[in-house]
Amino acid sequence: LFGRQLMNLFTSTEELIDYSVRMISWLIPGYIAMSVTQVLMGVMRGSGDTMSPMWTSIVTTVAIRLPVAYTLAWYTHRPESIFISILIAWISGAIISSILYRRGKWKRSSIFDK
Length: 114
Fold this sequence. Notes:
The protein is an all-alpha fold.
């Protein structure tokens, strides 16, 4: 909405402003998915299940984000590849964390035994 004006606070270089606005347009929808992931993973961590969030983070970063970024960049040669890979990783993280949350392993944590 105010991407150009916001970027003008930091730089006057038009090319950088254009690039930043494109980046923001790719990443803004992903913040909803990232928020879901952070909340659900926080619940799991708070209950004592720290392994599920750790493995989800590793999978979404190493097995999803990096290969997607590399593959897209290799074929498209566009800087947006990085932002698209971040968006895909955030959406994947939301899906994985939702599945893990619904399975409820975190409810069987020792914190609930007391």
